[in-house]
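so ive been stuck on this for like two days lol. basically i have the seq below and the ligand is pyridoxal-5'-phosphate, smiles is in there too. i just want the complex predicted, nothing fancy, no docking runs or whatever. if the output looks off dont worry ill sanity check it later, just need somthing to start from for the group meeting slides
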Amino acid sequence: MKVPFLDLRAAYAEIGTEMDAAYQRVAASGWYLMGAELEGFEAEFAGYCGAGYCAGVGSGLDAVTLILRALGVGEGDEVIVPSHTFIATWMAVSAVGARPVPAECDPRTYNLDPAAFEAAITPRTVAVIPVHLYGQPADMAAIGDIAARHGLPVVEDASQAHGARYRGQRVGTFSAAAAFSLNPVKNLGAWGNAGAVVTNDAALAEKVRLLRNYGYRVKYQHEIMGTNSRLDEIQAAILRVKLRYLEVWNARRRALAARYTHALSSLTGQADLVLPHVPDWAEPVWHQFVVRLADRAAVQERLRAAGVDTLIHYPVPVHLMPAYRDAGWRPGDFPVAERIAAQVLSLPLYPHLPDASATLVVEELTNACQVQLAGVEAQ
Ligand SMILES: *Cc1c(COP(=O)(O)O)cnc(C)c1O
């Protein structure tokens, strides 16, 4: 048996009939951009998040970028970002001409460490972007308090956390505005690129709506310098169908995560395996199930040989990427991020992962860790 890391065909097999009906409805309508499907999705996703407004945009990267532009962030500004995240969080800051300033993450939750955030604030800091990484909310109360004391807006990058809750409240509602990626691999994913900005600020929502569509409200009356970042009607229609399944699919992710945690917890005392740490205020949606291993390469190779695919999110810390060479960061500058990047391993976990596959993942990871242990004892 093979266990792929992710299989999106299974979602199509479950609700393909409904999705086909949705795109055929759009195809037959003859209206493909800025229409009723987008409006419907925006209202439904804002409602799901418990927020006042949602503006659909072209991607998750664009969602972060357009929020920053709407807040007036630009040249000469600094924006604090987690040292460990997907590079899009940083690139959005770079895209508006500002400087991403990394702050270290909590080594147990992998999310922005509030104390590190506060220490990174300078007179040029204009915003902070906590990321709810792997589907687990960041510590929003602590981050929000510090930001408020320094008069800084918070922007959530919720691209991995659709539906996650912090102290009972959905992520995406703890900040000036939140960015969601809706690309195919996310918990809520379209059939291509898509993203959304969620906010309780009517003026900010309106600004993002202007920016995403060439800066106009009335045709050929372009008020501000905008861009083309629209969420098209077919993607919106597909997302409306999938949004109806998000709660059920997130619940399946939670059940699989509980199963992994239960089955692997006996290993953690012996092997060097570290399981996800969930603070009591966090209700994660398990975009990824991430373990940490000192000897990751050997375990990953054993799993691969046994037919279990795993991935690393993310193997190279952003500050050491060639894309950021000009900033002059060196190995050792962000040791927590570097250690996380060296040790994390994501196990297969998606709503349609068959039970037998989850069992095999547990068995093979147990075997791999025991081989490691035997090797250590033999030395
Ligand atoms: C996926 C992702 C993005 C970017 O989303 P795209 O839709 O691929 O542009 C941004 N931030 C985080 C944390 C992500 O996981």
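The mean pLDDT is 97. The first strand starts at residue 53 and ends at 57.
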